[in-house]
Automatic annotation (TrEMBL):
Pfam families, per database record: H2TH, zf-FPG_IleRS
GO biological process terms on file: base-excision repair
Species of provenance: Sphaerimonospora thailandensis
PROSITE patterns membership: ZF_FPG_2
Signal peptide range: none
Alphabetical keyword list: Metal-binding, Zinc, Zinc-finger
Keyword Zinc-finger (UniProt): yes
Protein name per Swiss-Prot or TrEMBL: FPG-type domain-containing protein
Domain FPG-type, chain residue ranges per copy: 115-149
């Protein structure tokens, strides 16, 4: 989908469209390569990549089997490639499911198609482990420890700070 920077004020501040043909593995590699941001924060930053929100960034990371706290610049070439594939499949699936649905059905359909987001305490559809939640920035994220963090639950920074 082409964007005209003159059409909508502020649109020039958006990052590339991840479903555009020119969003290649190399494009993604150049974005993550110089970033010391945790990958979860990078994915949902509209100025870096446009169109991946809080929910879909959780989904992308589960598909890519990657810890949300991983620092972007530490990704290997294989991990960048896996992430690129995960972004494309996750967003295309979401578009496919949304197509043809009435607006009132969209919210429930969106949730039913999600693998980890909003599913804290439920079983992971891939491995059966319990989906966990941890605070992230101004909200929370959901992930599967077995699929994404080598079976180790992530430390909740907000909680550890309170316990000190
Ligand atoms: Zn899992």
């Amino acid at each position: 989908m082409a964007r005209d920077p003159d059409e909508v004020p502020g649109i020039a501040n958006l990052g590339p469209d991840p479903l555009a043909d020119d969003f290649t593995v190399e494009t993604l590699a150049s974005i993550v390569g110089g970033s010391r941001t945790q990958i979860k924060g990078l994915l949902r930053d509209q100025k870096v990549i446009a169109g991946i929100g809080n929910a879909h960034s959780d989904e992308v990371l589960h598909v890519a089997r990657m810890s949300p706290f991983k620092v972007a610049a530490t990704l290997t070439d294989e991990q960048v490639a896996a992430l690129h594939t995960a972004i494309a499949t996750t967003l295309r699936d979401a578009v496919r499911r949304a197509r043809g649905l009435a607006a009132e059905d969209l919210k429930s359909e969106k949730k039913s198609g999600l693998r980890v987001h909003g599913r804290t305490g439920e079983a992971c559809g891939v491995c059966g482990d319990t989906i966990r939640e941890v605070s992230f920035a101004d909200s929370a994220l959901q992930y599967c420890p077995t699929c994404q963090t080598g079976g180790r639950p992530l430390a909740d920074r907000r909680l550890s700070r309170l316990l000190k």
